[in-house]
């Protein structure tokens, strides 16, 4: 302990702030470029489906993204920032030479910014987290070899890279099936959708409030709220939101959609006859019974019942109803992105500022709110200037979507 303290004191005495001021300035510029690349790429991913389905215009998506990215970063983003700047590499390895850690952060920012901007120009949706973790490992291996890398944290991060798309896809399928069976397949899908509307809002609001209040921002003292308090607050906010939707928002949405339908010329609806569909599978069953004992047909019959008909025409009123829900969920997608990925742009910058101010590599200072806001500003600039490229890729070029999907 005494040796570590002596080394730290010697490093602080030898640390000349003027000699590394250039690294701080370059880091600030590169952090802005990295944030701009994130805004043009990752944020566009979050709002691409809303634009592609026609629910939001590009300008409206930009405005909502700017608001909710900021809220997510300020309310929750600090915790992920701490993980990225201190959790991947053991900063104690640089106690005797904090200048090396500063140079490493500049290298991280430069490498990630160049790659993200290149990917955005090429209309490629990529992961900022992958880029940042790879750059962090790269500089640390060059300077310290395999020493100081927190391998268990790396393993957890890599596992999450594979689990995230798998879990996201699974949850997406489950949620769509719930909506499909509870609303879209009903004889009166619009009325069923209206009844389900408060439930959707309750779940979404309660979950996001819980994410904010449970071990929340130290800057806003949310970390002092106990678990039971966070649960009560989230349920209460969800209940208030559901009551607001039930007694105020739902009647207005219903009236607006009905007025729009009355003003439009009537179009002949296409109705899928479920009896004909059943007959089709019965015929198939008789043929397959001869060929393979009916096992294949039973599977196909089950899948045909489980999965929606690709030629099914959705009820127009119901699609309009889901448009309002999709705007809401897109906003919280932006909130979640601000809470998680803003740290990618500012974690190296936060480390640079902490080293410059404290003259050591301990990284004990909390994430300043002005750095969070700086990161959000850079992301918003990138979104407004480059976001349309990836929005087109995610929203229109990958698959055909509507507000219900």
From TrEMBL:
InterPro entries xrefs: Phos_transporter
Entry membrane topology: Multi-pass membrane protein
Cellular compartments annotated: Membrane
Pfam families noted in UniProt: PHO4
Gene Ontology MF terms in the entry: phosphate transmembrane transporter activity
Keyword check for Transmembrane: yes
Gene Ontology biological process: phosphate ion transmembrane transport
Transmembrane annotation, as ranges: 20-40, 61-81, 101-122, 158-184, 196-214, 226-249, 367-386
Main location: membrane
PANTHER family referenced in this protein's UniProt entry, alphabetically: PHOSPHATE TRANSPORTER
Function: Sodium-phosphate symporter.
Family (UniProt): Belongs to the inorganic phosphate transporter (PiT) (TC 2.A.20) family.
Protein name, as recorded: Phosphate transporter
Species in which this protein is naturally found: Ancylostoma ceylanicum
């Amino acid at each position: 302990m005494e040796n570590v303290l002596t080394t730290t004191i010697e490093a602080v005495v030898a640390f000349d702030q003027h000699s590394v001021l250039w690294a701080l300035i370059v880091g600030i510029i590169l952090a802005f470029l990295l944030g701009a690349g994130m805004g043009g790429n990752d944020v566009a991913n979050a709002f691409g489906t809303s634009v592609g389905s026609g629910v939001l215009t590009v300008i409206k998506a930009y405005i909502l993204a700017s608001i909710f990215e900021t809220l997510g970063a300020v309310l929750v983003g600090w915790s992920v920032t701490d993980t990225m700047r201190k959790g991947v590499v053991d900063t104690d390895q640089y106690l005797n030479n904090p200048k090396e850690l500063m140079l490493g952060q500049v290298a991280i920012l430069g490498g990630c910014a160049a790659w993200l901007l290149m990917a955005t120009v090429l209309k490629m949706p990529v992961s900022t987290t992958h880029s940042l973790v790879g750059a962090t490992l790269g500089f640390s291996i060059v300077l310290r070899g395999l020493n100081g890398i927190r391998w268990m944290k790396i393993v957890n991060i890599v596992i999450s890279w594979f689990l995230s798309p798998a879990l996201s896809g699974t949850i997406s399928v489950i949620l769509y099936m719930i909506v499909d069976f509870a609303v879209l397949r009903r004889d009166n899908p619009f009325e069923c959708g209206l009844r389900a509307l408060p439930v959707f809002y309750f779940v979404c609001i309660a979950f996001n409030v819980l994410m904010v209040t449970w071990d929340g921002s130290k800057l806003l003292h949310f970390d002092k709220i106990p678990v039971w308090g966070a649960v009560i607050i989230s349920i209460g906010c969800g209940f208030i939101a559901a009551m607001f939707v039930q007694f105020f928002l739902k009647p207005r949405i219903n009236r607006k959609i009905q007025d729009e339908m009355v003003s439009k010329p009537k179009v002949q609806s296409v109705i899928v006859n479920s009896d004909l569909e059943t007959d089709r599978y019965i015929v198939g069953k008789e043929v397959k019974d001869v060929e393979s004992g009916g096992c294949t047909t039973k599977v196909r019959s089950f899948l045909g019942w489980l999965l929606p008909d690709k030629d099914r025409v959705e009820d127009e009123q119901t699609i309009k109803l889901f448009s309002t829900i999709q705007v809401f969920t897109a906003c919280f997608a932006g909130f979640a992105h601000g809470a998680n990925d803003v740290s990618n742009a500012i974690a190296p910058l936060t480390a640079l500022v902490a080293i410059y101010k404290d003259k050591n590599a301990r990284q004990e200072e909390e994430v300043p709110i002005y750095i969070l806001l700086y990161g959000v500003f850079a992301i918003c600039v990138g979104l407004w200037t480059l976001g349309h490229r990836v929005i087109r890729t995610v929203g229109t070029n990958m698959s055909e979507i509507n507000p219900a999907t």
